[in-house]
Amino acid sequence: MFITTLPAGKDIIFSPVGMIRFFPVVGLILGTLLLFTDAIASMFWPASVAALMDVLLLVALTGAFHLDGLGDAADGLFSHRSKERALEIMKDSRTGMMGLIAIFCSLSVKVAGIYSIKRLSAVDDTIQAASLISITPFDTAILLLIIPSYARAGMLFGIRYFKYGRDGGTGHDLFEKRLPLVDFIFVAIPLLLSLGLGVRGVVLNMAFALSVFLILLFYKKKMGCITGDMLGAMCEITESILFLVAGMALF
Predict the structure, then answer these.
(1) Cβ-based neighbour number of residue 124 at 10 Å
(2) By C-alpha distance, which of 15, 8, 52, 51 is closest to 29?
(3) pLDDT per residue over 52-84, tens digit each?
(4) Cα gap 111→100, rounded to integer Å
(5) Exposure check for the chain: N or C terminus, fewer CB within 10 A?
(6) pLDDT in the model for residue 2
(7) Which of 82, 238, 84 is nearest to 158 (CA)?
(8) pTM
């Protein structure tokens, strides 16, 4: 109903505040579809093409909603204008050069990260044995499943700890009331699943925490508030970083 193009049923009451807690669950649904798509694509194409197909699936399933937010946020945040003018630029439906660059970089990093994960999973046993942190097909499946969930879980921190920067807008209803800590309950799902990844899971969780912290710190210094576009940008950037970190060859 809100952050994917997937059907949510008929006669469903739209409740933005009530749905926030389920963002990590939505990410798991996306991750599940990503996992199956990757398995099918890998039967017909090499890892590089399968990685591209994976990213195109995420774009299709989200309707490029968060990518649009990334483009608008980049145009505003890197315009070197006042807060008020930056908010106006973000609201403009046209995408500028900074937005295009941000979208291109985000998609490129995702493809590279997924490709790296798949390549590490495909190396021979000799190289795996020499690796400090090996990656198995099971690890690959877990990573594809939980990273979209982490990316959407990160938005909960922005919603709880920041005030909304507009009087209206797409994300306004998400800030109707302060998000209670109990609504973070489903963030525990990707955290628990990451335990099966060993040291790589620890690295992934550290990368998640650091990414969310640095993005929100940047938002605080730059704007002192957050918008729907900035939440979308946060989701895309976090997802890109985590795919890249997950594909690190640690020897």
Answers:
(1) 7
(2) 8
(3) 999 999 999 999 989 999 999 999 999 888 888
(4) 17
(5) C
(6) 64
(7) 238
(8) 0.91
222: alpha, beta or left, given left = phi > 0 and alpha = psi -120 to 50?
Answer: alpha
* Residue whose pair of structure tokens reads 């690295």 in the numeric block: 203
Q: Strand, coil or helix: what is 75? A: helix
Nearest to 243 by CA among 130, 149, 169: 149
- Residues 249 and 35: their CA atoms lie apart, in Å, by 21
Other beta carbons less than 10 A from residue 175's beta carbon? 24
How is residue 78 annotated by DSSP? T
Find all residues with CB under 8 Å of 154, minimum gap 6, and list them.
208, 211, 212, 215, 234, 235, 238
Q: What integer pLDDT is reported at residue 57 of this predicted model? A: 97
Reduced to 3 states, what is the DSSP secondary structure of residue 164? strand
Q: What is the DSSP string of 11-53?
A: S----HHHHGGGHHHHHHHHHHHHHHHHHHHHHHS-HHHHHHH
Tokens for 160?
A: 């709880």
User: Which residue is listed with tokens 């002192």?
Assistant: 224
